[in-house]
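Dear H.,

Thanks for agreeing to be a second pair of eyes. The structure we're designing against is below in token form, covering all 336 positions.
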């Protein structure tokens, strides 16, 4: 596709109106959310959504999430039910995506041809204001080249999509740092979690009153998925990754200087030098929530260095954020 000038826009009222007009004209816009930055387009316009796939080099088998300004807008794009209403009341606006039966106004390109659509109401105030100003539901996957590390700052978006899109709304760093939790709620009696994310599973199960069934098998690379984030390899740096449940001092000592170790919590210092090794902290306060907010930014930073391999310690399973962070780590570490 032809190269273009990619500009960052401060969130002034004038710029928000300008970007809303661009979306109404069928353009794509990089947008901040509380999870990761997204690449937004008019969800009702198949041609506009096709531009998302082109810019990201994303396969058409990987569907998009449709973002709404308010929960009441759901009935304009999909079919609600009692469980949808219950979860929306508890978690919207917020990092929960629900898969519902779609209405005909949603083009097949948004849903990979399925008769369902993934929807959420984001919590980021700038993105919600932009949706309202545009007067449209906005389809938006993560704003990065397909398969690479998700962006959590506007500069990450520009680094990955420079020359492929015109506009990025700079809303500062993302608060959560990993994508939304996705739950299939088409059958209100049998909800299924398709992707762990910004809403911990325990919080969902507290509202549901029972254990949430999980989809555990990844979707084949050449198969269509009902929701994004289902591939075995995703969120991946170019540098190979080896994962550990726990990194011991002996294992760290055996890592050569050309490779780096990332411990879950090596103390409040971002970097510690252990002999010839450089060890990074994934969490700065010993919580999985901190690890989630740092994960993609740290992976990007280390991927730009000359390390030949990254050795990463997973978040302990007892932490409520372990599901979301370790899911991203396992997909990032999957073999090419």
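And this is the sequence the design step returned. I haven't edited it by hand at all.
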């Amino acid at each position: 596709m032809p190269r273009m000038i990619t500009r960052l826009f401060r969130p002034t009222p004038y710029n928000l109106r300008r970007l809303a007009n661009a979306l109404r004209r069928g353009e794509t816009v990089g947008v901040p959310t509380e999870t990761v930055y997204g690449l937004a387009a008019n969800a009702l316009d198949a041609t506009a959504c096709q531009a998302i796939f082109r810019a990201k080099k994303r396969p058409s088998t990987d569907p998009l999430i449709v973002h709404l300004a308010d929960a009441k807008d759901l009935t304009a794009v999909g079919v609600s039910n009692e469980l949808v209403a219950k979860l929306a009341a508890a978690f919207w606006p917020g990092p929960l995506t629900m898969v519902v039966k779609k209405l005909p106004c949603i083009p097949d390109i948004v849903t990979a041809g399925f008769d369902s659509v993934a929807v959420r109401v984001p919590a980021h105030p700038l993105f919600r204001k932009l949706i309202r100003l545009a007067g449209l539901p906005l389809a938006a996957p993560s704003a990065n080249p397909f398969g690479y590390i998700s962006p959590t700052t506007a500069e990450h978006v520009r680094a990955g999509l420079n020359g492929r899109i015109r506009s990025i709304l700079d809303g500062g760093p993302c608060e959560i740092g990993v994508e939304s939790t996705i739950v299939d709620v088409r059958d209100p009696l049998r909800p299924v979690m398709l992707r762990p994310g910004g809403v911990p599973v325990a919080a969902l199960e507290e509202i549901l009153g029972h254990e949430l069934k999980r989809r555990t098998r990844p979707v084949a690379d050449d198969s269509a998925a009902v929701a994004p984030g289902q591939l075995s390899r995703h969120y991946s740096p170019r540098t190979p990754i080896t994962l550990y449940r726990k990194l011991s001092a002996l294992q760290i000592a055996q890592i050569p200087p050309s490779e780096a170790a990332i411990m879950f919590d090596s103390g409040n210092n971002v970097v510690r030098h252990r002999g010839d090794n450089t060890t990074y902290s994934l969490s700065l306060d010993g919580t999985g929530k901190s690890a989630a907010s740092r994960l993609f930014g740290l992976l990007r930073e280390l991927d730009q260095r000359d390390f030949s391999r990254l050795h990463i310690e997973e978040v302990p399973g007892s932490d409520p954020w372990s599901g979301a962070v370790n899911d991203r780590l396992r997909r990032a570490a999957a073999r090419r």
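Two observations from my side: The longest strand covers residues 96-101. The two ends are 26 Å apart (CA to CA).

Warmly,
E.
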